Amino acid sequence: MIYLDNNATTPIHPQVAAAIEPYLRGHPGNPSSSHAPGHEAAAAVAGAREQVAALLGCSADEVVFTGGGSEADNLALKGVAWAHRARGRHLVVSAVEHPAVLETARFLEREGWEITVVGVDRTGRVDPGAVAAALRDDTVLVSVMHSNNETGTINPIANIAAAAHARGVLMHTDAAQSTGKVPTRVDELGVDLLAVAGHKLHAPKGIGALYVRRGVTLEPVIHGAGHEGGRRAGTENVPWIVGLGAACALAGAEGLDDYATRVRPLRDRLHELLAAAIPGLVLNGHPELCLPNTLNVSVPGLSGRRILEACPEVAASTGSACHEGDDVVSGVLGVMGVPLEVASGALRLTLGLLTTAEEIEVAGAALVRAVAQVRAAARVR
What we know:
three-stranded antiparallel sheet, Aspartate Aminotransferase, domain 1, 43% helix, Aspartate Aminotransferase, domain 2, alpha/beta, 13 helices, 2 domains
């Protein structure tokens, strides 16, 4: 099977697995312990923190390790809301955010905060002007994702952050899909908080990080001992933290260039194969300002789910893996204004560092055959 669902999760890269393996078989110390094994574990965590910081362009003490991207988003939204409630109880989010942001915002809304949801244009981009117009004197946080997990559309985060900061408002971005694929250096983006998910950049599932700019106060979501600078209690998951560090080092050394020079052409080749053989194929998302690995296309009038069922050679999805299994149209495409007959035929095809040119040729042919099969079956009915 050809794996084209890397936005759902990436396979662990062999170099990342090699970095993790010694910490599964040995190095048993707790990083908080004062003996030699504890010092070894603490040094491993510190090294990984430096690797994450290097990729994000920040200081190591601004990196908080979490149990994944969703926890990082929860810590950002809840942590800011709870810590800054004396200033105000208003947050601004975009309509295409991951559920880790939208559901956290809805939780805060039930707890008494007000939420303004800003829409997007037909390509899925957020307008900085719309964010600026939504800001109020009691706004404490803006949260807009760096790139969308379904369409790959990249948002103008630096401009949005500038609009927020002009009103003294903190800026958070969920960069789970972007980190390791395109540059996400925090000073260039101007953000105060940035969420990372390890399993989106060839590290294990269940590990993530939150960048917290120095001076930004957060109320912890997980209370306990003073781990992670008092911002996230719990004994550090040393093997997985080492894996995240290794994945960030891999991205910094070659990954970003690899995505730009090798993965993007493969993505474009897949689009070319499908567009040439499938009349009426529609591209969802921005044609240029998008992730180099993400191709979201629709076959109008057909069901994307049925196309994938007819194509067992390819592992892909119709939208976010967080919604897979539900025979419903993507909420992201709906917010973008994509017509129902187009949105229902959506396919999200996402590549990774391990995707090969041969796989793209085979996958393209298999998807074309599947579309023809589903169309023929629809005509018979």
